[in-house]
Amino acid sequence: MQVFVVFWAVFVNAELSSFATTKNLTFQLHRLSDPVSGSVANPSWELFVNDTAEGKRQQVTGFGAAWTDATITAFEWLDPDDQTNVLQELFSKDGIHLSFMRHTIGMSDLTPAWYGPWSFDNTSQPDPNLDQFSLTEHGEKMVDWILRMYQQNPVVKLLGSPWSAPQWMKGKTNEILPQYEDAWVNYMVKYLQAYHAKGIDVTAMTIQNEPLHSSDPEWTTAVPAATAVTLTNKLGPALKAAKLSTEIWAYDHNTDQPAYPSQVLQQAGDFVDTVAWHCYVDKINWTDLAVFRENHPGVKQYMTECWLHLQDEGFFELPDFVTGPMQNYANGALAWTLGGSTKYDVSWPSGCGPCSGLIQVDKASKHYAKTQDYYTLGQFSKFVEQGAFALFGSGSYTYGDGTGVQASQYLNPDGSRVVVIVNKLGDLPRFQITFRGSNQIYHGPVPGLSVTTWIIPG
Ligand SMILES: *[C@@H]1O[C@H](CO)[C@@H](O)[C@H](O)[C@H]1NC(C)=O
Ligand SMILES: *[C@@H]1O[C@H](CO)[C@@H](O)[C@H](O)[C@H]1NC(C)=O
Ligand SMILES: *[C@@H]1O[C@H](CO)[C@@H](O)[C@H](O)[C@H]1NC(C)=O
Ligand SMILES: *[C@@H]1O[C@H](CO)[C@@H](O)[C@H](O)[C@H]1NC(C)=O
Description:
This protein is α/β, with parallel strands linked by helices.
């Protein structure tokens, strides 16, 4: 059977096609007329793609969003058939085929208030031997949903991030007390072992979500860079000793403090070669990732969190926070979060009230809606496969007024090329892409105010 599978992979190529999602949502991953081979007179816009060996950049892990307690609460409002439908729409090849996901380890600011604060060692008294360790009913639920996700897409890469350490591990400054650092390490090992025992191998974890953010001790932990170094240098060997292959990724916070992950890479470099970034910086400049890579050759980078807030969110926010990192060497990008409530009533009181999901669930009617973010993320995740290479390209341009065209381009393992075009201009009826390696030119229409994906077979 192995031979047959290989055969199939080599000879079945992606189909020449074009799909668009428009800002007015008239088109939602809608198939347009196919791009046409050959050049066009007076192109409305031109892109150039280096589909050569030299044009290969970083490898793609995938695109996705985050599992939170809020997401699971909302999904559990649905009837069982609709729960399965949602999972298919998110993770199967017929859906948007998300292949890189994050999940919260214990409570987060997207834990519903009625859960109460919780962790995997939820005692008020210090428990340095972790005798009270338990995933708890909330943690078991998350495991169940993640397992159901794997039924739809068995190759999803999973990142785990803790919000708060168990309260008893922390002191008055909301930092992990030095005497409990080893307990913290064992706590993380136990979490990964518990997941492994359930059939989930967590691909990577960060030491702390937003380590420089300490607004509410219930769901944050302050982890200065020096502590992150200490914890990483303790956790790395502990993972090896436990034969866990989970990677440790540094930082998991905003792009404006690169000195933090720099210090972790320098002082805990035996155990970490990857940095996770968030987007919460005024006028974010994703070129910061390319600059960081220049200063840290060989580093891998991910955009692991940028929020969705459907009530007042621009159509292009998600396409921008995926395109920017991918143009600057990120291996993947994650939206915050996967699922939410249409009534915005599933967050922690001091947490992200306006946060929404790719899927929004209405509790009263038990209906779910796929949001604009579901479709625009799908413009990437449905077509760019795990293991694809991002390619060099040129022709992206943003005018002073914010309009313009920004593209990211990829070479899939089957040899097909995928170009994701974020068009903030009007209709571009004669869009042209020149593939410099293969010497091919294609043209076709790109709708105004859209995210449009061209798939060109190899
Ligand atoms: C892309 O192709 C152009 C034209 O062949 C070439 O000038 C440029 O150096 C290439 N860039 C990369 C990074 O391969
Ligand atoms: C965790 O402990 C808190 C405070 O004691 C309690 O309110 C909550 O119900 C506990 N949660 C779980 C899942 O045990
Ligand atoms: C973004 O940062 C790069 C590199 O530091 C710089 O060249 C570029 O001008 C910046 N872009 C904006 C819009 O500030
Ligand atoms: C929505 O936008 C597309 C592309 O810009 C356009 O072709 C279509 O007519 C628009 N639909 C409506 C209802 O305005």
